[in-house]
Amino acid sequence: EPAIEVTKLSFSYKDGTRALDRCSVTVERGTKVAILGPNGSGKSTLLLHFNGIHLVQQGTVRVLGKTVNQHNEQWLRSKVGLVFQDPDDQIFSGTVWEDVAFGPVNQGLRGEELEAKVRQALRFVNMEQYGHKVPYHLSYGQKKRVAIAGVLAMDPDIIVLDEPVAFLDPAGKRALFELLNRLNRQGKTIVTATHDVDLAARWADKVIILCRGRVLTQGEPALLTDKT
Ligand code: ADP
Ligand code: ADP
Predict the structure, then answer these.
(1) Is the whole model's pTM more than 0.90, yes or no?
(2) What order do you get walking across the sheet with 66-67 strand by strand?
(3) Ligand 1 atom 12: the closest Cα is on which residue?
(4) How many angstroms separate the CA atoms of 188 and 64, rounded?
(5) Complex-level ipTM beyond the 0.85 threshold
(6) How far is CA 6 from CA 22, 82, 86, 206, in A?
(7) How far is Cα 182 from Cα 199, in angstroms, rounded to an integer?
């Protein structure tokens, strides 16, 4: 079964804004998928359903073959790691090391196992030397990598990123997408929201284009270049 299968998902915010309107999308296992669309088209709202931050109001979300509901939230969060657009929204601890350790500690990891997990995650994002640092003092790009390490330390099958390269310079963007490719080669499914059409066309196996809360089209990245 697919990594993620969304069927006729609709979602309205408390103020009545209908952010998603009968969206149906499929993310196959082991693929790299880019979700495109202008600001306000519903990308974040859709992503926030993938790990249970938004509860399903109408329609269904299936992850790794299981229908998402209030009862399997914990399972869901162990399978789907979400990297927020703004790393300041997910980095809370006093040091980088503690921050990356937060998830695994919650999962019950201690001692050498925990040490190894955190070290490995920090090494993967090339931040091994920064464990003792205060996250507040890091650059934006470094914070972003710490946030990703925190997600990797939980070893999710699916990694979801909201605008991962916003505010990064061109070299930072390339480095981040290379990192995502390495994760994908290790078997992770990667879903990322972006409004960088060129990058999506080159990087993704599949693109999903949202417009005003609806799925405009989804398929091969060639969709993006054929039309221009
Ligand atoms: P995108 O990620 O593509 O920029 P969003 O999912 O953030 O789009 O937003 C989709 C729609 O929902 C927009 O009209 C946006 O203004 C609205 N929206 C987003 N968050 C909220 C919120 N907390 N309360 C009310 N409306 C919201
Ligand atoms: P890097 O480690 O990737 O070089 P920098 O701190 O140099 O990160 O930031 C790269 C770009 O992101 C710069 O143009 C900077 O102005 C911008 N930036 C840095 N921090 C933030 C932030 N918190 N919000 C928005 N933009 C930021």
Answers:
(1) no
(2) 18-27, 4-12, 58-63, 66-67
(3) 19
(4) 12
(5) no
(6) 9, 17, 25, 15
(7) 16
